[in-house]
Request: fold
Amino acid sequence: MLYAALAVAAVLILFPFVWIALAGFKTQISLLLGEVAFTPTLANFRELLFSSTSDYLVNFRNSLIVATASTAIVLVVSTLAAYSIERMAWPRWTVHGFLLGAAVFNAIPAITLVGAWYVMFRELGLYNSYTAVVLAHATLNLPIGIWLMATFIREVPRELEEAARIDGCGTVELLWRVVVPVVMPGLAATAILVFIHSWNEFVVALNLTAKQTATVPVAIAKYAQEHETKYGEMAAGAVLSTLPALILLFIAQRQIVRGLTAGAVK
Amino acid sequence: MKSRTADRWLTLAPALVLFAAVALVPMAELLAMSVSHIQWLQGKAHWEFVGFDQYARVLSDSLFRAGVVNTLIFAVTAVLVQMVLGFALALMTTRIVRGRTFFRTVFILPILVPGIVIGAIWKLMYNFDFGVLNQMLGAFGLPAIDWLGNASTALLAIIAVDVWHWTPFVFLLLLAGLESLPQDVYEAARVDGATFWQELRYITLPLMLPTIAVTLVFRMIMGVKVFDEIYLLTGGGPGTATEVVSYTIFRRFFTEGQTGYGAAMSVVVLLALVLAFVVARSLTRRREVVA
Reply:
C-alpha cells in the first residue's frame, strides 16, 4: 500500500520530465500532431548547439560564468560573516539583528529590486555586463549563505580554535587552516545550493542582461515566447539546462538535502 | 585583544559592504524613484519630482488590485495543498524501510530545476491542441479543455504547476522534521496500544507544529514571489485571471517603461511583505514557546 502510493507520486513527478525530454527528440510537426509514437531525431539539439542563429552555447557559457562567480563571492563573504557572528564575541543583539535582517531581506521578492538595479547599473554603465548579474545574484543569495555557514560553523568544536589561538594563529590563518577544512562538507552544500539558485534565476537575468550576457533560462523563455513557439528547441534547451543540477544530484545528493533542509528549518 | 576587535569588523565588513552597495543603495534609489517621474533620453535618466501621486495611483490601479487578490489566492491555496500532500508523503516515507533514498532522490528533482523549465514543461502538457492532458481526455472521449486560455481554469492550472513544483520541497523539510523526532515517545505510545490516528493526533502533529509553522511561512513567502511560470505560461491572462503582483511590477516597470510608477509599486509590495514577514515570524515564535 505505502509503496504503491509512493510509486504513484514518483511517477507523477517523473512523467512531466520524461515528456519534455521526449519532446526534445521530436520534430515540430510530430509535436504539433501530438504523436505518441515517433522517430527520434537530434535535429533540435543540432539546431540549438550548432546553428549560426542559435546563441545557446553562449547562453550556457554565460550561465556558467555567472553562477560560478556569484557562488564564489557568496562562499567567501558568507564564511567570513558567519564566522564573525558565531565566534567573534559580538553582543547577542547584534547577532540576532544581523540574522533577522538577513531573513527579512530573503523574504523580499527579487522583482521589487530589479527595477532599482536596472536604473543603478545603467547609470554605472554596467547594464548587460556579467558584473551586474553576478552582484545581484550574490546579494540575493547572501542571506542563505550566511544562514547555512553559521549553522555549520556553530558545530565546529571550540577547542580546535582555542588550541590554534594558543599556537599563535591569526584570524585569517585560523579560518583557512582550521575552520574551513572542518566545515568543508557544509561549504560544499552551500556552494551547490547557491550555484543552482543562480543557474535557475530568471527575473534578474531577464532584465539586466541582453544578447551577449543572457543566461540559459532567458534563452529558453525566448524560444517559448517567439511569435510561433519553437516547442522542439524549447524542450531541447530545457533538457540541456537541467544537466548541471542532475549531475550534482547524482554526485552530491546528501549535500543538497543538507543545504535545502538546514536553510529552511532552523 | 585589540587586533581581535579589528578582525571582528574585518570579517563582517565584506558582507556589510556588499549588502549596503547592492541592497540598501538600490532600496534608497527605489524610494527616490517612487516620488519621481523618470524619462529615458539617449540612455540618460531625467528625474522630475512628483511627490506621492504615484503611490495613490498604485492603490487604485485595477491591475495591481487583481494581482494582489490572485497572489493571495495562489499562495494560500497552493501552499495549503502542498502542506497536506507533502506531509502525507513524508509520513509514508518514514514508514518504509527500503527505497527511502530512491524516493527522496526522485522527489528532490523538481526543486532543482529552473522555474522557466517547469514553465516549459507545462506549456507542452497544457497545450490545447497536442498537450498530453487533452490527449488523455480525448482517449476517454471527453472534450478538450483550454487549460491556460480559459479564465475559469487558468489560475487553477498555475496552482497545479506550483503544487507539482514545490510539494517535494515541503516533503523534504517535513521529512527532515519527522526523522528528528524522539523515538521513545512512539515506543511508549505503542506499548499503551495507541492507534495510528491517535499517534498522529497526539504525538506527531504537536511535535511537528514548529516545523510545520516554519515551512508554511517560508513557502508562503516564496509563493508570493511567483513569476517565472506566469511569465512563460499565461503572461497574467486571460484578462487578469492569472495576474500576480510580481508580474504587474514587471509589466509596469519594464514592458511599459513606467520607471517611477513601477518603483512606487515595488516599494508598496516590499513594505507589505516585510511587514507580513515580521508578523508571521513573531506569531510562529510564540507558537514554538507554547509547543
Observations:
- Chain B has one domain: 53-290.
- The mean pLDDT of chain B is 90.
- Chain B touches chain A through 92 residues (CB under 8 Å).
- Strands of chain B lie at 36-41, 44-49.
